[in-house]
Structure formats: structure tokens, C-alpha cells
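2024-03-11 09:14:02 DEBUG pipeline.ingest accepted 1 chain
2024-03-11 09:14:02 DEBUG pipeline.ingest length=232
2024-03-11 09:14:03 DEBUG pipeline.predict start
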Amino acid sequence: MYDLEAILKYQMDELQAKAFKIALMWETFAEREFPGYQHVRLRKNGDPRQSILWKYCYKLARETQGIIPDEEYKLYVLAQLHIMKHANPSGIYARIDPAILCGDKAWKRWKVWKRIYDQKKQQYLGENTEKITARKAKIEQELNNTKKFFFEKYGGAPSYEQVRQAMYDHSMIRWVTIDMVSPYYILMSPFVSRSLEGRGLDDFFLFDLNVYRGSITPEIRDLFCQIFSYEF
């Protein structure tokens, strides 16, 4: 409906342009997290700054200017949606609208989500090293916990279609974020690899998966094959 040329067309200043970009992120991620939901969107025609969605995003951009780095607004929007979705596992949701982006509660949600995100990013990093090797026992425990989670959720071994659906609706991102699924599973799973359909794994998950790749040895791959033999 809109592209970034609207910034020039409507002569937006820097802060207005930032709000417009956040609004586009909201439209994309809200639909992915809550498909079929009647989301608040930018107006179909005319100046997008007249939209309720843009006004909430402008409020967010104005109140967090200099506090949230520009590159983290994508994570901020995802954080709000992820937490709202995880808080209602029954699938019955309160009104999901861009008002959740602003205010004290939104900031608290962001800080909780970002703390988990940062912990996962730094979990195996040494202070001055980019690649480390995690202990085999630690990885084995994570993989077994992941398998247990899947078997409890699906009543047995999940099928490829079930894993693909979890990737498609971004449930898998939430599960990794809240430690229900190990990043090592994501990196080694044939089901996950097939479901990407040509997309990049790092771009899809928004995590720095290189943190974990250095620990995947032939021995760890053999271990994965034993635990998740149903994927082969």
C-alpha cells in the first residue's frame, strides 16, 4: 500500500519518517503474529500521518528518541507482539492494537523481552571472544529439553508440517526466546531447514546464531541425530 517513497512525497521530517517505518513494521509483524486478525493499519489513501497507527508510532518514536537505537525498533515491535501472544496461550486475545507500543507497561514488556534476548545473544560468549565451544553436557540437556517440550505440546514426535507451521506463524521464535527450544535445535534440524524455503536462518530468527555455530562439532551432530532421529 505504501513504500518508503511516501517519506519524500509527504515531506516527512526525520522523526515522522521513523514513525512511518515503525508503522510498516507493525503492519508486517502484527499480521505474522496474529494472522487473520483485524489489525489497525495505515489509511489506504492519502497522507499516512493521518492514521491512528502512525500517531501511536510517532508517540513511541518521540518518547524513546535517543533511548532505543534505531536498529532495535524492529525488536521492540516484535517484543510487544510476542509477549501479548505468549500471555494468552489459549488463543483468546484482548484487543491487539498499536496502543500496546506506548506507555509504562509497554516499556516494562520491552525490558523483560530485551533482557532475555541479550542473555541468549551473550549466553556463550566470552568477554573477548566471538567463538566458543559449549560443553557437550549442556547442549545435550538443551536438546533433550527441546524434545520433551515438543512431545508434550504435540502428544508425540512433531511432524514436518507441524514444525513448518510453527516457523510460519513465528511460534518457533517465541519458543527460542523463552528457552523452550534450543538454538542448537534450530541450527541442526532438517525440519527447520526445509521449512525456510530459501530464506536465511539468521534473518528469520533475528538472533546472532553464530554464537552457537562454533559449538556444533561432528560429535554434537551425531548426538542430535540420536535425539531427533524422527527428523531423518
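2024-03-11 09:14:41 DEBUG pipeline.report The chain has 13 helices and no strands.
2024-03-11 09:14:41 DEBUG pipeline.predict end
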